[in-house]
Amino acid sequence: MQRCRVFANPQPRVQPETVTMSKRRRVGIYGGTFNPVHNAHLLVADQVGHSLSLDRVYFMPDANPPHVDHKTTIDAKLRLAMLQLATKGNPLFAIETSELQRGGVSYTYNTMKQLIEQHPTTDYYFIIGGDMVDYLDKWHRIDELVRLPRFHFVGVRRPGAKNESKYPVIWVDVPPVGFSSTDIRNRVRRGQSIRYMVPQAVAKYIKEHHLYHD
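RE: above sequence
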């Protein structure tokens, strides 16, 4: 009599699920006209980036800012070119051109809503000076802006400003620098030196393209 050997059905092998953990990125956004970009801008971006351990700080030039006298704002392509020259040597820095690409009046709410939707694993830190913090209640759709997910305001205190707001702000101390883009434009117009106020490559670009003269 033959014996029948019975083999147990082997259990199917269960493959372990591959779980992809997306590392959250911490990104600073430094918006402005940058007309022109100068060393104080670079100082603020670098100090905030390192203080908050950001992965990158993006300079974001606006197309048509709602709060600036347009007669003194040069073409966006020229401002972008100077930003590229100024940020070239720092690996922390990059440039975000979404507002230039969209054109029209630049509102922070529209831009940040778009960026957050496009980059769901990124936390954004929007850098502004203390003088702008004082006027946050006048910003376009400010109540909706501060409720956007993964969005934070970062304030840099400015001498002479109240440096306060009812809206949440992360404050970062940065050594104060007492000149602005307006000062630089005026000095160029009067034929005065702007050395050590802007990167050398930016000063050369301004001279070669005859910017900020009457």
